[in-house]
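Write out structure tokens for Transmembrane protein.
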Amino acid sequence: MLQFVIMPLLAYLTEPFPWEPDSRVDWNSICANFNVSKCNNIVLLQARHDSLTLAHGVAYGFWAAYDVHREVVELYSSESFLLKMPLYLFYSKEAHERTLALSAGIINASDFYAVTMSTYIGFPLAYTCTWALPTSSPSRIEAYLPLEFHIFKLLLRLDLSFIINRIVQRDYYRHYSHLERFLILFGLNGNDTIYYIVVGGPTSIVVLNPYMAFAFFMDFLMSLDFICRAVIRICQLDNYIVFFFATIYLSRTLWFTYGGLSLTSYIIKRLKFVRFHPINPTLIALAMTTFAGPLTYYQSRIDFFMDFYYILLNEVSTVPENTIEILHAGWLFMFSIILMPPCSTLDLSSLANSI
């Protein structure tokens, strides 16, 4: 049960605490004084400078302010060349077109660069810089939010931990003390029969609470900057430690699953002709914690998902050529997690017979 009590605070395995120095650059404030072209040049110049910290022969570098990804890519004229580029999953239309021009030999490697701004409902979350050298093509992402936002999130997470502990004590563990007191006072009334007390876990009391799922959903919305970084870090296997902590960070999305289960439970009570198989909330927690990272990684390696996410990021909303909107892709990711357990428990044969 301890894992659920401390789960709101597990985010700080990846996120900095509010009182730690924030070395990230607030590009929103800087770029407010320049046009888009000038801003992109400033961001790209800083990204090139930061990439010098990446050691020779190392593909990935991770720091508090930014991440750097370097990959050797063989140039050839083909649409599939895009899939070989680092972090193509997050390319804007401008980056997409420049990459095709690079593969076709229209522009030289020294002339290839792109600065992509990732937004959520128009609010900038991250800047990704991509450029090419004769032997490599590094990509770098930087994410940020104001310090006041981090402080608010810390207070929310502390409250969530306290509330989870309170719910468990109030609705579950306090009955132990009642049982112990009654057994001491009254015993078994002289009965020599052996009684076995079967005790379950309080997992379902917490995870099927819709208010808890909603609170974690709000935490998810307030942490989009670090979720972007976690997804980026999961899309690599050069550094397993970074991959592990990013997986732990994304495992908090299991509360989407619990929210989906609460909603499903409410609906099927009104659909008498649909039958579901029982499931174990604890097994769901273990499964989501284990597979959230690997599933995200494999999505970043499958052509279909890469092309589909490109459409969601660039084509669904009207955005500038150098911008991607993560709203729709984020909701798709969330709903795919929400729907997995309910769909896996649906008895399709009973549904077909009722129809």
